[in-house]
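=== RUN LOG ===
request id: a7f3
mode: sequence -> structure
chains: 1
length: 349
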Amino acid sequence: MTTTAPAAAAPGRVRPLRRAPALAAGLVVGLVLLAVLAVVSVGVGARQVAPLDAWHALTAFDPTSFDHAAVRSRVPRTAVALVVGAALGLAGTLMQGLTRNPLGDPGILGINAGASAAVVLGIFVARVSDPRGYVWFAFVGAAAAAVVVHLVASAGREGATPVKLALAGACVAAALTSLVTAVLVTRTDALDTFRFWQVGSVGGRDLSQVAELAPFLVVGAVLALASGRMLDAAALGEDVARGLGQHVGRARAIVGVAVVLLCGAATALAGPIAFVGLVVPHVGRAITGPDHRWLLPYSALLGAALLVVSDVLGRVVAAPGQLEVGLVTAVVGAPVFVALVRRRRLAEL
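=== RESULT ===
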């Protein structure tokens, strides 16, 4: 009997190691499929371009070809969809892990509301009408809202617990939304400018805007990918995490900074886009299980793929016009999320 116990326990210990090659292979396959989606994205539009011609436009550009010129003009929106989708996928996973709330998304910490309020004030006070101008208002507003939420949740003896963070985020979001509404109903010119940003779009941006926000996205992604062990320990509860030697306050601060950088930059770049940060972590968890060291990179990959596919669908369904990606993600994400939450195993963290 003494020899069978280790044999029975061994499979449980080596099973994660055996899954690692399969999960790594899945990431490689996912990256290849994402590259294919990107090529399809630059080929779809008012002027349809075959995938092979789109690839040639990227690798051997001919300035005299109208097809190649059309493909090159779609590169910025595809790049925006890739980086924003990856950022929102990572941020949603971090939020759900940090708050231990399966409904966590960029709205749970008031980030979308903070960005929206700052953009409205930028339009109302500074008369900003160009996306290059209010992108920084959105970023600062998102960061400020997250700081306020954390300060409010930190009040009291227990500090910023997951429940208090969620409640504080809901309260701050409600207050900021009321402020936005109060400004917009009195200024129709601000409403006309704000509504095009509020719907969420990857069009009308260029690569220089991506480059401006790239440092924030890179730092946020590095912090996110490095926080997998901290989130795994936090999922066991604060007492267990402290018993494992983790500094809970420091872990929350690192994850919070990553969330602010990722969500703030993504929201500033493309506007508030719903359901990506909410649905993607649940889909990734169905593939990888609860291990955040694998869940985080899968969430980045799935988020990028979801936003690229949504952007392509928006151009195909409404051709020769287009639907903004924020509308498409809501239509696509809602039924997927309903199907996921009906399965109790995926709805719990």
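=== NOTES ===
Residues 1-17 have pLDDT under 50 and may be disordered.
The chain has one domain: 81-347.
=== END ===
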